Amino acid sequence: MSSQHSVSPAEFSQIDLDFVIATPLLTTINAHAVAAQSTLTFIESIKDKNMKFMVKTEDTAADGTTTSATKELDVPLLAITKVPQLNFDSLSVDFNYSISQVAKQTKETSVDAKLSIGAPGLLGKLLNINFKGKVATKRTSENTVNRGGELEVKVNVSESGTPPGLEKIISAMVNAIDVDNA
Description:
Layout: H1 9-12, H2 17-46, E1 50-60, E2 66-76, H3 77-80, E3 86-118, H4 122-126, E4 128-159, H5 164-176
Antiparallel strand pairs: 1-2, 3-4
């Protein structure tokens, strides 16, 4: 039986590959923007806040006497708090799609035939022939298209290092903490 149906690349044209590929990429870009905004919001929320710490110090003089003092330190929160920063290291999209096709066709034919032969007169009583017959054919084939797909998206996220500008600001804040004169 020759198949009148075939699977062609046109079957794949109904799959929106732009959507399949672009959506995870755009989602990752949006997630990166949300992570960056989260970092900015965090910095904005603590940039002008300080914490007070009490530090006890002891000094020993050359003559062996010890003096102790309690100092209060005013430390910027940004200098002692971990700033949340995520880095989206990689994105991979694995897409598999298969199309299988089975053809099914059904055709039925049925023919009935009758034939009677008889002779006139006296012969008709002796000779009477009847033929009855039936011819039936049935042909079946199947045509089924199974479409399937699989999409796997992997996004690898790690904590990134502090941006150089923020690192300088935090270092300046730490260096500005005057432990000796507090």
